[in-house]
Amino acid sequence: MELANRIAERLGVELGKTEVYQDSNGETRIQIQESVRGKDVYIIQTISPDVNRCLMELCVMAYGCVTACARSVCGVLPYLPYSKQCKMRKRGSIVCKLIASLMCRAGLTHLITVDLHQKEIQGFFNIPVDNLRASPFLLQYIQEEIPDYHNAVIVAKSPSSAKRAQSLAERLRVSIAVIHGDAETDLLDGRHSPPTVRTTGGLPELPFCIPKEKHPITVVGDVAGRIAIIVDDIIDDAVGFVAAAEMLRERGAGPIIAMATHAILSADAPRILQESAISQVVVTNTIPHSSQKLQCCKIKTVDVSLILSEAVRRIHCGESMSCLFHNIGADD
After folding, report:
1. Helix (H) or strand (E) segment spanning residue 208
2. Torsions phi, psi of 235, nearest 5?
3. Is the model's pLDDT at 189 over the cut of 60?
4. What is the DSSP code (8-state) at residue 160?
5. What is the pLDDT of residue 185?
6. How far is Cα of residue 282 from the mean position of the Cα atoms in its chain?
7. Distance (Å, rounded) from C-alpha 229 to C-alpha 161?
8. Is the pTM value of this prediction over 0.85?
């Protein structure tokens, strides 16, 4: 409700009157307590630890608005759940595609979100998707709240987040470091059935792919005596951030700051961060985390309601959204 109230306050409107509750058997029920006939409805849904309940609430609410003859239903979902499951792993499934189909079938006609885990996820939807960026607000925080940020180095805790780190480093005119290497060994495809059989019918045998060599984890870049800012889009169990901070401290980095857009902070993440070498954890309010802040005093919250409210206003008024992506390239 906090983020929804901030957006409504910036737009100068009141939140719609609805009632959402769970039956004793766990089913989700909604009651729209005012007319939405012929209106443009914007459903703001942040994600709590009970992810599946939040998704069902969004879908049931959207379907309720459609059956109540709303003209359009736009979902404002700052963090898209299941976005990390956007690739095939072993015999799993691309769950993010399923969630996208579910939202579209429920009646959403537009989606506003922030910093998708992979921007290609937009292709899972058959409705317009505006993938807003939190980087301007995080950059502003660095410039205003971190003294001597020109002596900082932006750190990517894995090669997959190097592009995000490079984008921030180029805008701040600072250098970049990448933690390279892979300690995990269980990410192989694992599909070995049916068992390999050598044919004798004259058909050529398929060549086997050479296995990858796992390089030891190391830091590529100079971090000694500098402020290290570890960046990523999501901070969940915080294990990766803490391991990166320990490695940076061993190499002489000064204050170590963790920065991410979405603060899931599940399980014991707040306690782990509190006891770690990280001095600050900078996140946005795309996900409510007030209870986690009580467990970890290092967490600093950056408000992004301004860009969400402006996106809603521009969509409602039929204005261009291009100014919200000013100086953001296709690779960002």
Report:
1. none
2. -120, 110
3. no
4. G
5. 45
6. 14
7. 13
8. yes
Q: Which residues contact 164 (CB under 8 A, 6 or more apart)?
A: 156, 231, 232, 233
Q: How far is CA 8 from CA 60, 62, 194, 292, in A?
A: 22, 19, 57, 25
Q: Residues for the chain: how many in total? A: 332
Residue range 3-34, pLDDT digits in tens: 999 999 999 999 999 999 999 998 999 999 99
Six token digits for residue 230: 């570890």
Query: What are the pLDDT digits (tens) for 133-150?
Result: 999 999 999 999 998 999
Q: What is the pLDDT of residue 204?
A: 67
CB 233 within 8 A of CB 261: yes
Closest CA to 161 of 65, 68, 261: 261
Residue type, 99: I
* C-alpha separations of 63 from 128, 194, 321 in Å: 18, 44, 26
List the structure tokens of 130: 């505006």
Q: What is the DSSP string of 115-155?
A: S-SSGGGGGG-SS-EEEE--HHHHHHHHHHHSTTGGGEEEE
DSSP string, 244-303: HHHHHHHTT--SEEEEEEEE---TTHHHHHHTSS-SEEEEETTS--HHHHHH-TTEEEE-
d(CA 7, CA 13): 9
Q: How confident is the model over 232-256, as a mean pLDDT?
A: 93
Q: Which of 108, 99, 3 is nearest to 55 (CA)?
A: 99
Greatest extent of the chain over all pairs of C-alpha atoms, in Å: 76
Q: Which of 42, 53, 99 is nearest to 311 (CA)?
A: 42
Rounded CA-CA distance 146/300 in Å is 12
Supply the DSSP symbol for 59.
H
- The enclosing H or E element of 71 equals none
Helical packing angle, 2-11 and 305-317, nearest 10°: 50
**282: nearest Cα among 181, 165, 141:** 141
Angle at 320 between CA 315 and CA 259, to 5 degrees: 80
